[in-house]
């Protein structure tokens, strides 16, 4: 693992348009039964312009930044050796279908523990107005064996 | 009922929700498509074995995603969830024939009555062993 990744400037991702059917598909996949995740009418009754995404939907946008990290040639991260250690989301507002989101990656820590490395990747997700929507933080364990 | 009364109806340690989910290989395929996470350890036994895993595993994010659902159902509104964190402490092996049963129990971990917020602690188990550590949901109380 390359400790120089900490503080490296990554490009903002291209914008991700949150699709209504993607929200429905994701909601079903995580066993959601919330009407605002599934019914446009229920979401509008609750005051939202369209379907509201479940709390872990931000991973779909964060995934774009994790792809950037894995693509760094000097990162030394092999996907098959990566284990998800921790995950957190801090929301300013829920994600809603129709949102155009971009994410900015920041590697906040790289630590080596025995043969393994731990990298903390923080992705700040903003909407088309530049307003903060959610910060997603992944701790990835990169196994040094094999 | 006013908001105040709802807040006072709960105390730290109270169980607010519980549920169990039956995951099958189909659930993993569905989640892979929905999330875009096509890591083969979530659908191919041979690859899972080749990298030293005990079997095909559920996506950690699938476990995280469903474990919050009982809290959402209790709140009646997913938008009251303002933060959520977990540690993935034990892999969830999904048998090709029998699948796997995941149980979730949600309890109040902390209440801030002034702010109208609470921390909900999740205990997520497979065969009585916890699979998520420090699983905490930050919510605004309805």
From TrEMBL, chain A:
SUPFAM superfamilies: Thioesterase/thiol ester dehydrase-isomerase. One of its GO terms (molecular function) is (3R)-hydroxyacyl-[acyl-carrier-protein] dehydratase activity. Gene3D superfamilies: Hotdog Thioesterase. Belongs to the UPF0336 family. HAMAP family: UPF0336. InterPro entries: FAS1-like_DH_region, HadA-like, HotDog_dom_sf, UPF0336/Enoyl-CoA_hydratase. Pfam families: FAS1_DH_region (PF13452). Signal peptide: none annotated. GO terms for biological process: fatty acid biosynthetic process. It comes from Herbiconiux ginsengi. This is UPF0336 protein SAMN05216554_1827. Residues 5-135 form the FAS1-like dehydratase domain.
UniProtKB/TrEMBL annotation, chain B:
Residues 15-123 form the MaoC-like domain. InterPro entries: HotDog_dom_sf, MaoC-like_dom. Pfam families: MaoC_dehydratas. It comes from the Bacteria. Belongs to the enoyl-CoA hydratase/isomerase family. PANTHER family: (3R)-HYDROXYACYL-ACP DEHYDRATASE SUBUNIT HADB, 3-HYDROXYACYL-THIOESTER DEHYDRATASE HTDX-RELATED. This is Acyl dehydratase.
